[in-house]
Amino acid sequence: MAAFDAAAASYDLDFSTTRLGRWLREGVWRVLGPTFAPGARVLELGCGTGEDAVWLARRGLSVVATDASASMLRVAAAKARQAGLAERVRLAQVDASRLSGIRGVYDGALANFGVVNCVPDRRGLADGLAERLRPGATLVTVVMGPLCAWEVAWYLLHADVGRALRRWRSGGLARVGTGQVKVWYPSPGRLQTEMAPRFNLRRLVGLGTLLPPSYLSHLVDRWPCLFGRLAGADQRVPFGAWLADHYVAVFERT
Fold first, then answer.
1. Which of 10, 33, 108, 149 has its CA 20 to 30 A from that of 155?
2. pLDDT at 11 over 80
3. What is the DSSP letter of 221?
4. Is residue 162 assigned to a domain?
5. Nearest alpha-carbon partner for 147 in 109, 202, 186
6. Strand duo 246-253 + 133-144: pairing
7. CB 65 within 8 A of CB 39
8. Do residues 244 and 146 make contact, with C-beta atoms less than 8 angstroms apart?
9. What is the pTM of this model?
């Protein structure tokens, strides 16, 4: 977790508060809003700096926000206190690959922005989550897929075939801040298979399909009006979930 610990202090500045980061997170919130009702108890895996946990708590939900990084949790705790929501946001240091430390039964769960990509055994993740979610509960995952059209085009334009095709080599190293972590890139179809039979896929949508990945946010800052017209067009793009940097997969616990 050293890479995530090191990235915690600057994560919001590098991503959450950027124009592109706000657009992408708002896209996730458009899914979460009608999915989780006020009063629900939600388990969040890989909460990071607590942006989603605080947003859910403001809407009247109780959130158990977990992360393997102690530094991320400290930032999230400070954010929840500053928002006056510490009673609605409970934090716990838990690795998404090992859920044994989580107690209770929840009305829903969230794993945003690549948490699932850091879990090598997604069938095990499905089993662990199913034990902690009531039947009929909703699981929202935001996953990096194996084919990002923007990424492939960008690196091919710069004659870097290795990086253009890097997601096809699942189980490789990806940069997080100044460190590296091992990641996997399941396609929507593969993720659906791996989550079954404990979860059924109910909705699939690309996230920011027409927008560049976060490491190209400088392009969005350079041409905000152009990219602003493309933001939020996910559902109008054919096969958008297969071409985007991230896709949102909404599952129902069987």
1. 10
2. yes
3. H
4. no
5. 186
6. antiparallel
7. no
8. no
9. 0.96
